[in-house]
Specification:
The chain is an all-beta fold. The chain has one helix and nine strands. It is found in: Membrane.
Length: 146
Amino acid sequence: MESVVSWLNGRELDYTTGFLRYGVRYHNGRLIVPLTGTYNIYSFLSLTESNDYSPVQPSVKSTNQTLVKHAMYKYNVKIRKDVELASSLQTHRASNGRNFNAFSSQISTLVQLEAGDEISVKISDISLTSYPSDNFLWASHDLTSC
């Protein structure tokens, strides 16, 4: 699994209103939460792969070669390792006679986080994340739990 570090961020977010609010910070491809509490975290990845079309297709493909894992992790300095919070496992199908395949993956979950926890996203095949401006990572603190 490789970390996704290319997100819509910084000045690119100037036209939006909701990505970095309530003290949530973005640093090195991760969101850092400021307060202990319940958060709704969401990750959307726009995935593409080139398709070198060949009229002769391999007869059998391993199932593992067609599975894509997209997962969200938290890192806490006390634990000193990434802990998986949620994941999605899906297949992607080869497109017949097309130049590329395009598909997406999204995960959303409620999770209890501590102040300073870092949220990251990993994917089993980083080469599928060709368009970082289409990828979103979002965390919203549930203010009703304060």
